[in-house]
Amino acid sequence: MYVSEHEIHKGRTIASIYFFMQGLASLIPINTIISTLDFYTDRFPTASPSFTFPLACFTSNVILILIMVYIKKNFSLNFRVPFSLFVMTLLLLGMPIIAVNMPHSLTGLWIILGFQFVSGAFNTISNATVVGLAGHFPSHYIAKNSTGASVSGLLSNILRGVLLIFFPYGTSETHSIYEILIYYITAAVALMICIILHYKFIYSDYAAITLPLDNLPPSKRPDELSESRLTIILDDQQHVVAVSMTAWENAIDNFQELWRVLKHLKMLLFIMVINNTISASMYPGVMLKKPVTYLDPAWKIVVFAGVFNLFNSLGKFSTIFKGLVCKTVLGMVTGLRLIFLFTFVIEATTLHFPVIDTEWFFYINVALFALTDGFVTSSVFILCPTKVHGHDKEIAGFLSLQGLLFGFTIGTYCALLFRNL
User: Which domain does 396 fall in, by range?
Assistant: First the structure.
């Protein structure tokens, strides 16, 4: 298949936009929820949404690790990404509607938590697929994906801040509902744009010459390959055809495949889990417990989360300095991050502790917390695919994402210990 230099250059541009936007989409649901925690706290005050809402999202993520390889083998790329994004869009739009119509209702609360659980599952399918695909490309595409994920939070905070200027917090219930609906509709539109970009990318010539054949739509595969010959090629690459196996054999093969790749990544994945356990233990729940008198509940979330997302983005961007991206540096940074478990708890529970309770220290603390989190997370995503070859790169992408999500899940459960600070 001949592809001109112009088409390759165009394809690289599309790929850059695609991986950035898919990173953006991966955290749009949870960032949208975090940015509007004041809205849900007003309607479900006894539920402590800043602690309980992330649980529903991340719990489903861990469950998906057991079947992710099965999903990859049995569902097409165009199902795993655009369909998942479409489901996430519908569920995201449904959450504020339930909150408005069923406030202070246990049923309404459980419906929203259910929406978040299902949305988290489809988000894992989509995001793991995209991270896996990025493993077939140069490492800077993975960095773009990680940067997009960070920018997602920052843009969410900026949009919420702009809307609060026009619809100030506490003025009226009607204004509050209008502001939230505009905010969620904008987030849904962004997810729909990512669906369109997926088709634009996957049908590009650059994708056709870079991705493995089984990830390409039939129209982009070489014409001379019939389905039967394609099956033979995939078999030669040790990708077993699922229809020729019993369900039990297929399950065993999936775990063997995961274990084979996991052995090459165990230290990096351990770092990823510890790093994100620390992060989710403190953010957003404990961080938002910092007492302030100069911000109302809505602006408090926007400012605190905005600082976090800004420096988290800078941390992920810092991985362009290749000399810092190594296991030794990552292990040291992750170990030092344990200090944040003490500083944030002190800030949430005391008012006059020397230095730590000052406003300037709090913002420096948040900045360093976010900066180191972004650096470690992005570095692990970059390093994992470099430890394996061929189709194993995609599985390495799945596993690195699952390490992140597993850490988030452990962290959100650990955060419940601090719920009553």
Answer: 5-418
Is this prediction's pTM over 0.70?
A: yes
pLDDT 10s digits, 286-302: 999 888 888 888 999 99
Q: CB-hemisphere CA count at 13 Å for 25?
A: 36
Rounded to an integer, what is the distance from CA 150 to the centroid of its chain?
A: 9
pLDDT at 129 over 80: yes
CA distance readout (Å), 324 to 150, 328, 333: 19, 9, 11
Please say whether the dihedral angle defined by the alpha carbons of residues 164, 165, 171 and 174, taken in this order, is positive or negative. negative
The domain total for the chain is 1
Residues 6+ apart with CB under 8 A from 204: 7, 10, 11, 14, 15
> What single-letter amino acid sits at 331?
G
Judged against a pLDDT cut of 80, whether residue 253 lies above it is answered with no
Q: Domain holding 405: CATH number?
A: 1.20.1250.20
Query: Residues 411, 278: contact at Cβ < 8 Å?
Result: yes
Higher-confidence position of 219 and 75: 75
Q: What's the CA gap between 33 and 41, in Å, rounded?
A: 11
